[in-house]
Amino acid sequence: MKKIQISPSILSADFSQLGNEIKRLEEGGADMIHVDVMDGHFVPNLTIGPPVIKALKKNCSIKFDVHLMISPVHKYIEAYSDAGADIITIHPEATDNLKSSILKIKSLNKKVGVSLNPESKINLISDYLKNIDLVLIMSVNPGFGGQKFMPEVLDKVKQLKKIQSQDNMNFDIEIDGGINFDNCKTVIEAGANILVSGTTVFKSNNGDIKKNINLLKLK
Fold first, then answer.
1. Is 65 known to be catalytic?
2. What is the pTM for the complete model shown?
């Protein structure tokens, strides 16, 4: 079984103190930093772009897990790579040619992630699983933080885990959306090994990030 990792979403951080918030995550034992990039077009919200990521990355020693919810995504991949993304995750619906976009990320020596929205089927990406490093299952409709977890997506996680095992593949299974202390055990048992969590990491237990990360890891 893969090691359980926590990727806190900075969407729930204090944006007036982003640099300090990332230091808190590092000191609290976060495995990586999850950065949600939204364009107001592919999803109904706007967040941050490459200059902010570049500034934050300068003083950060852990990986940046950058989730691009932008369309068309292909032409922006290089900008986020240059800004400091270590993992670049895209949606199949946001590119005209998923294979080409995957190869583009690989050519920049970055890890490749592909994300599935709650209604998106695994067959959208089944031909590419051998070529990617991570599948991100959205357990809310992307666009806003603080939504409730959708348990129906766990079937998708279980299917991916089965494919991974049967075909001896090594991609990570990441889940994002409403992840908290009540459902983390269920998603880990279903097969997810990277949990994205924002509100729970930053706000629970009076903001004790280390405690919250360990609780999500079932420690």
1. no
2. 0.96
